[in-house]
Specification:
88 residues, alpha+beta, 2 domains, two-stranded antiparallel sheet, 4 strands, 33% helix, elongated
Length: 88
């Protein structure tokens, strides 16, 4: 795996339930590694399932704002995404 190493990448397990061995590891960015954890919360919008962080990033919303709207205020996903958002 050394041949594909770059300073800005980190080693990540493809399947987190398995160990660190060549076939189960890859080099990824910090963001990719953060999205490969069982702590992530997923939501589905328009038939696409993705993490709360990725949805917030895609629609240009701060993660904390989006998370708070969904999990603390109980807003519907569409309202949480598009309230005061220019992409709506």
């Amino acid at each position: 795996m050394y041949l594909s190493y770059k300073d800005e990448l980190q080693i990540d397990r493809i399947d987190n339930d398995k160990g660190y061995f060549k076939e189960n590891c890859r080099w990824v960015t910090l963001r990719e590694q953060a999205n490969n954890t069982n702590r992530n919360r997923y939501i589905e919008f328009k038939g696409i399932r993705d993490t709360v962080a990725n949805w917030a990033d895609y629609f240009g919303i701060k993660y904390g704002t989006f998370w708070r709207r969904i999990y603390m205020l109980g807003w519907p996903i569409e309202k949480a995404l598009f309230m005061n958002n220019s992409k709506f």
